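Record type: ASSEMBLY
Status: queued
Input:
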Amino acid sequence: MATSFSFSISMQARVSATTTRFCLQKPASIFHNGKTNLSFSQRHPIPARLAISCAVKQETVEKVSEIVKKQLSLAEDQKVTARTKFTELGADSLDTVEIVMGLEEEFGITMAEERAKEIATVQHAAELIEELIQQKTA
Amino acid sequence: MRISVMSQMQRSFSIDLPSLIPLQLPSRRHTHLWYVIPDEVKSTSLLKRYSQLLSQTEKDGVDQMRGDELKKNALLARTLVRTTVARYQTNKEVDPRSLMFKKNVYGKPEVDWQNCKNCNHQPLHFNISHTDSLIACGVTVHVPVGIDVEDKERKIKHDVLAFAKRFYSADEVNFLATIPDPEAQRKEFIKLWTLKEAYVKALGKGFSAAPFNTFTIQSIPGTEEGYSLCKTSEVTADPLEETKKCNGEWKFAPLELADSHYAAVCIEDDQANEGAPMRVIVRKTIPFVEDQLISERIFL
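Status: finished
Output:
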């Protein structure tokens, strides 16, 4: 899944490709008896509105990654992709909130705290940002 | 019969592990707070033993962490939870590996007693928190618990007041604004963060149940370490008429750990406990190796 976003940021792919894919606004794994059930798509049907409008620009993903790297003081060569989870990079809730503040400043948006704290990956952040930008310009 | 069960468990350990020293459950008014300092756990063979305690899902989680230090800390966090909960099992030596965990409907981790072989169902609650340099686990009985730890020296990358204005309640912003020294202000900001996080985690209903700007945690006048929770009412046109509902349903204990961290413990006040002080027993540990009693504190 999401093979279009598996290349790392260091690639100079300047084609501003937008790819439509299903967006998952919520963390996908469902715990059952301690085991992770990975078949998430059946449990949470994606609203049609999200499925159609959910395209994320590579540029957004890159900007988010930059802000994440800066907040967490990561090395320049630390690989951060759309699918990277903040927790994998060692971010805690305070880091996540600071990242959100950085994103709000960068993109001129305001995120509701509840949604902000649930951002788990670079991809989630980019989706939320683009949704908010669209709402602003609508 | 007991002997054969024990030797069967010992056979199932591929490396011989010393037994875990059992613990008495905390009483209703007590919180037990355990912490590990990752820098003090250096033995690679010990870390290898720890990794054998984890479930496959937990091992995968550890592997996903980027970098050796983060992997080690993730391993220690799961080890601390498993060994600590296992030690409170009464009358039997429960293999920490047989513990099962699940999440409540909001995502808060809990012990899954039903699916654990040999476990006694206990009214035990736990919550963990960690930073780069300290991992903590709080344990209570009968009441939910939330804990949060933060490095005292943690630098906030944004302006502290701007951050508070964005996320904290108006009263908390006013409190922070009265602190003239930026260093002192940063410290109070972090202490407040740990108290607020501890509450949200104790509540266990996810972030949306208690956005930070909908409640104020403030000092109880006349006490040095007493804190109370006040909910700010939501939609008011006139901020001066903002009504606050302060209740004593939640108790807070602000602490410092290892001279390096601020910590906060929050528990729901049990009806049976009404008015009784909150007691926190802090112990430092290296699982299977040693425990050290650090302090026993009372919070009114």
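Annotation: The CA atoms of residues 147 and 265 of chain B lie 5 Å apart.
Annotation: Confidence is low (pLDDT under 50) at residues 1-14 of chain B.
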